[in-house]
Structure to design on (835 residues):
C-alpha cells in the first residue's frame, strides 16, 4: 500500500507522527501494509465484506424503503492502543462507572448529593429519563449500570476525553468481537505476532455479571436476553450475545408475569426467569408503568422487579445519568463520592440552562457543537463550524425555547486513523472509541472496544446510521508495543 | 424451548423441504415436456395445470397469468415473491425464521440458509430462463442438501432438531402424496392410452420428481407401472420419501418430544400420527386400488393437516395474551385501589 501521499494535516494521527514516521506501536503493521499491493489489500477487503454478508452480520436501516440489511462497513487498518495508554483508560473508566453507580444509588434513595447542593435539584427533576418508580427500590448489590459503553474521543492534543456515558443499552460489542474474527482471517500471519490482547472472553464476563445479580443470590439462575425483535437494528447483536452466552433470547410476548414472578412460555409450559439482560429502553419494558402503547414489553415486569423477584441489567432509571446535562456533573460526582480527581476528563461543556453559559452559547453558535440532552445516534445535533445560517438560526430558536435540553461543547477535532477507500486510497478518517465496562462483583473491561470511523472525507460523525464504519481495536499487551525480535521481525513483516 | 422458537424451527424444516420439492417438480416437468414434441406450448397447458394443482395454487396463478406454459409456471413457482409457495418465497420465509432464532441454530446451518437466500436474490429470472434453468435448479437443490446435511451433522439432537424433523417429514409426506396425485391430473395425449408410452413416461416423471427412480428400479427392474409406482411411494418401508417412511419419522419425533413409548400416545397429535402410521403400514396395494389412489391420497392429506394443527395445539400455539387485560390486571393503580 502506498502511504507516500498520506498526510496527517492538522490532526492527531493514531498511526503517524508527521506524515511519514509511524508511531512505534504501529511500526510493524506499517511495514507489513507497505509490502502489500493495492490489489492484495482490496482482495482482503472484499473477502471480509463477503464474509460479513454470508454470516449475516448486518444491521437494519430505518426509514429505508427497501427495509434492507446492510453490513456495517469495516476497515481493515486497525486502531492500535499501547498497553500503557490502555491502563490509563481502564483506570479512568472504572473510576467513572463506579461513581455513576454510587450516584444512581444515592439518587434513588437518600439524594445526599442534591441535599449537599453538588447537583442542583432542578437538573434531576427535569431529566427525561429519571424514573420516580425506582425511588426506594433496592437493586441487587446496589449495581445499576452493569454494562456501560462509554464513548471516548481524542483531541488534537492527543488527550482522551469522555464524550458520553451510554449507561442505558449500549450496543456495538458484537462488532468488537466480529471485527476481531475478521482481522484474524485477513492477517493470519501478522496477527498472532502482533501482541494483541484477546477480547473473546467478553461473553463469559457478561454472563458472570448477569449471574451475579440473580435475586436472592440464586446460584443457578435462568438468564435471558430481552430483545425488541428481529426488526430492531441491533437484532443481530442480541442473537450474537445470546449465542455467546448460551442463553435464551426472548421477546416481550414470550414472557408473562404471574404472582410478581416472570416466566417464559415454552413448549413444556411456563419456566421461571430470574435475570433479564434487556435491550429495550425503560419506556418500552412495561406498558403498565411506562408507555402504554408498547407491545414490545411485558405487562407487570416492573412489579416483579420492584418486588425483587427478577433482576434487570441495566437497572431501570440509569438514563438519568445518560442525560447530557447530567454528564456535566460527572466530574463532581467522582469528587463527591470517591474524593478523587477524574482520571478521564469531560469535554468542556456549557449548559444552556445556566444564564451565563446560555449567553456564551448563543453568541458562539457558529463555533460550537450543540447537542440536545437526550438524543443519540448523532441526531439532534448542530455542528456550528459546518452549519448553514438557517441551521444556526433554527437551533437558536430551539435553545431559547427549551434551554434545559441543550448543551454546547467546543468543536473537537477527533483523532484520525488511516482508512482505505476505493475513491481516495489511504487517507486519514476521524475515529472515536467505545470500550465496554462490565460491572459485577467488580468492574472489568475487556481490553478493546468498538472504534467507529467517519468514512466520509472530513466528517466527524461516526454513527452507523450516518455513514460511519468500524475498525478493529488492538490493545497491545506490552507497554512498548510489539516485541521486537530482530531478524524474525524482518521476515515476518514481509507478509500479513 | 420457547414455543415461538419451536414454531420457527418447524417452519424452517418445512420451507427448506418445500424448496427442494418444488425445484425438483419443475425440473422434472420441464424435462418431460422435452420428451413429447406433440406438446407445443398450447398442448402443454393441461400438463402445467396439473403442476399447479399439485402445488395448490391454480387460482393465484390465473390471477396473474393468462396461460400456463413452461415459462409462466416456472416463473410463478420460482421467482414470484407474491406467491408464498414459490421457491423464492419459501427461501425468504425460511431465512427470516432462521434470522429470528439465529441463536438457536448452528453457525453452519445459518450460513447455509443465508447463502441460499443471497444466491436466489442475485438471480435474474429472465437470465436464468434463457441461460440454463437446469443448472439453476440443481444449485438450489444443492444448497438445500447442504443445509439438511449440516443440520444432521452439526445440530444437537434435542427438542429443536425434533421440531425441524417434524416439519421436514410432514412436508415431505405431503409433497409425495401431492406428486402421486399429479398423475391424476396429468392428461394423456389423444393418441395414447393408459399403459401406453406417454403413460409410462408420466410415471417415470413421478418417480423422478420424488427422487425415487433408482430405488424403484431396484425393486421392479425395468417395469414402470402405475400401480407399482403408487405402491412404492406409499408403502415402501425403507425408501426415505415414501409416505410410510415419513409417517414413521413423524411418529418417532412426536413421541420422543414427550418421552412416550412406541404404541402409546400422550396427546391428540401423537394419537393421530400413530394411527395414520399404523393404517398406512397395514394397507396393501390392492386396498389402495380398490379405494382409488386419489381418494386414498386425499384421506392421508387430511390426516397430515390434522397432525399439523394438533402440533400447534400441543406445542407451538401461544395462548393469545390480551394485552389490555394484562395491563389492567397488573397495573400499580389497581393494587393501590385494592389496598
Amino acid at each position: 500500500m502506498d502511504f507516500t501521499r498520506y498526510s496527517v494535516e492538522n490532526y492527531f494521527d493514531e498511526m503517524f507522527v508527521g506524515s511519514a514516521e509511524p508511531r512505534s506501536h504501529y511500526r510493524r503493521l506499517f511495514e507489513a501494509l507497505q509490502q502489500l499491493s493495492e490489489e492484495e489489500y482490496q482482495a482482503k477487503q472484499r473477502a471480509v465484506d463477503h464474509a460479513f454478508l454470508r454470516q449475516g452480520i448486518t444491521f437494519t436501516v430505518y426509514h429505508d424503503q427497501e427495509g434492507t440489511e446492510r453490513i456495517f462497513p469495516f476497515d481493515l487498518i486497525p486502531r492500535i492502543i499501547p498497553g500503557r495508554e490502555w491502563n490509563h483508560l481502564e483506570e479512568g473508566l472504572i473510576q467513572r462507572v463506579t461513581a455513576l453507580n454510587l450516584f444512581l444509588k444515592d439518587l434513588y434513595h437518600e439524594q445526599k448529593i442534591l441535599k449537599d447542593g453538588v447537583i442542583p435539584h432542578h437538573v434531576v427533576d427535569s431529566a427525561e429519563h429519571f424514573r420516580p418508580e425506582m425511588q426506594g427500590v433496592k437493586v441487587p448489590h446496589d449495581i445499576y449500570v452493569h454494562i456501560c459503553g462509554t464513548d471516548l474521543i481524542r483531541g488534537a492534543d492527543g488527550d482522551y476525553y469522555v464524550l458520553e456515558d451510554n449507561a442505558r443499552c449500549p450496543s456495538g460489542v458484537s462488532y468488537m468481537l466480529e471485527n476481531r474474527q475478521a482481522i484474524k482471517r485477513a492477517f493470519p500471519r501478522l496477527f498472532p505476532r502482533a501482541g494483541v490482547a484477546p477480547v473473546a472472553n467478553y461473553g463469559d464476563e457478561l454472563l458472570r455479571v448477569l449471574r451475579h445479580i440473580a435475586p436472592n443470590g440464586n446460584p443457578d439462575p435462568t438468564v435471558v436476553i430481552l430483545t425488541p425483535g428481529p426488526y430492531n437494528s441491533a437484532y443481530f447483536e442480541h442473537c450474537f450475545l445470546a449465542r455467546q452466552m448460551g442463553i435464551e433470547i426472548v421477546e416481550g410476548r414470550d414472557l408473562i408475569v404471574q404472582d410478581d414472578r416472570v416466566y417464559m412460555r415454552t413448549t413444556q409450559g411456563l419456566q421461571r426467569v430470574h435475570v433479564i439482560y434487556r435491550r429495550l429502553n425503560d419506556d418500552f419494558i412495561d406498558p403498565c408503568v411506562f408507555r402504554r402503547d408498547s407491545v414490545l414489553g411485558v405487562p407487570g415486569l416492573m412489579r416483579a422487579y420492584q418486588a425483587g423477584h427478577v433482576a434487570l441489567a441495566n437497572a431501570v432509571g440509569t438514563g438519568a445519568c445518560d442525560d447530557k446535562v447530567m454528564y456535566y456533573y460527572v466530574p463532581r460526582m467522582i469528587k463527591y463520592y470517591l474524593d478523587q480527581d477524574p482520571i478521564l476528563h469531560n469535554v468542556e461543556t456549557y449548559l444552556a440552562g445556566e444564564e451565563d453559559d446560555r449567553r456564551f452559547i448563543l453568541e458562539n453558535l457558529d463555533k460550537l457543537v450543540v447537542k440536545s440532552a437526550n438524543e443519540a445516534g448523532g441526531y439532534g445535533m448542530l455542528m456550528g463550524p459546518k452549519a448553514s445560517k438557517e441551521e444556526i438560526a433554527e437551533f437558536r430558536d430551539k435553545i431559547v425555547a427549551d434551554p434545559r435540553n441543550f448543551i454546547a461543547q467546543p468543536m473537537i477535532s477527533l483523532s484520525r486513523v488511516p482508512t482505505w477507500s476505493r475513491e481516495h486510497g489511504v487517507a486519514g478518517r476521524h475515529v472515536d472509541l467505545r470500550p465496554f465496562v462490565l460491572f459485577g462483583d467488580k468492574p472489568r473491561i475487556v481490553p478493546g472496544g468498538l472504534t467507529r470511523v467517519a468514512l466520509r472525507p472530513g466528517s466527524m460523525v461516526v454513527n452507523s446510521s450516518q455513514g460511519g464504519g468500524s475498525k478493529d481495536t488492538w490493545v497491545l499487551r506490552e507497554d512498548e508495543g510489539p516485541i521486537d525480535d530482530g531478524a524474525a521481525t524482518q521476515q515476518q513483516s514481509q507478509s500479513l | 424451548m420457547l414455543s415461538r422458537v419451536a414454531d420457527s424451527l418447524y417452519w424452517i424444516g418445512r420451507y427448506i423441504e418445500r424448496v427442494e420439492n418444488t425445484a425438483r417438480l419443475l425440473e422434472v416437468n420441464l424435462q418431460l415436456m422435452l420428451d413429447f414434441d406433440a406438446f407445443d406450448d398450447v398442448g402443454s397447458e393441461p400438463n402445467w395445470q396439473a403442476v399447479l394443482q399439485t402445488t395448490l395454487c391454480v387460482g393465484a396463478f390465473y390471477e396473474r397469468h393468462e396461460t400456463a406454459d413452461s415459462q409462466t409456471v416456472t416463473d410463478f413457482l420460482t421467482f414470484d415473491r407474491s406467491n408464498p409457495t414459490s421457491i423464492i418465497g419459501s427461501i425468504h420465509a425460511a431465512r427470516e425464521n432462521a434470522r429470528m432464532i439465529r441463536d438457536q441454530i448452528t453457525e453452519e446451518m445459518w450460513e447455509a440458509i443465508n447463502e441460499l437466500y443471497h444466491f436466489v436474490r442475485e438471480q435474474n429470472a429472465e437470465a436464468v430462463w434463457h441461460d440454463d434453468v437446469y443448472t439453476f435448479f440443481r444449485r438450489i437443490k444443492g444448497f438445500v442438501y447442504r443445509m439438511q446435511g449440516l443440520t444432521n451433522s452439526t445440530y444437537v439432537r434435542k427438542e429443536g432438531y425434533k421440531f425441524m424433523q417434524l416439519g421436514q417429514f410432514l412436508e415431505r409426506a405431503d409433497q409425495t402424496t401431492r406428486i402421486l396425485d399429479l398423475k391424476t391430473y396429468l392428461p394423456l395425449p389423444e393418441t395414447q392410452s393408459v399403459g401406453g408410452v406417454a403413460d409410462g413416461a408420466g410415471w417415470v416423471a413421478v418417480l423422478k420428481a420424488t427422487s425415487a427412480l433408482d430405488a424403484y428400479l431396484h425393486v421392479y427392474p425395468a417395469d414402470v407401472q402405475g400401480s407399482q409406482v403408487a405402491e412404492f411411494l406409499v408403502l415402501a418401508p425403507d425408501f426415505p420419501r415414501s409416505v410410510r417412511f415419513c409417517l414413521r419419522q413423524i411418529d418417532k419425533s412426536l413421541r420422543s418430544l414427550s418421552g412416550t413409548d412406541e404404541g402409546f400416545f400422550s396427546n391428540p397429535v401423537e394419537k393421530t400420527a400413530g394411527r395414520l402410521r399404523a393404517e398406512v403400514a397395514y394397507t396393501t396395494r390392492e386396498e389402495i386400488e380398490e379405494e382409488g389412489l386419489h381418494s386414498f391420497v386425499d384421506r392421508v392429506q387430511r390426516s397430515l393437516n390434522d397432525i399439523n394443527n394438533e402440533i400447534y395445539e400441543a406445542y407451538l400455539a401461544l395462548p393469545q395474551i390480551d394485552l389490555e387485560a394484562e395491563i389492567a390486571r397488573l397495573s400499580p393503580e389497581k393494587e393501590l385501589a385494592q389496598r
Remarks:
- DSSP finds 18 helices and no strands in chain B.
- Residues 1-154 of chain B form one domain.
- The CA atoms of residues 269 and 310 of chain B lie 5 Å apart.
- The mean pLDDT of chain B is 88.
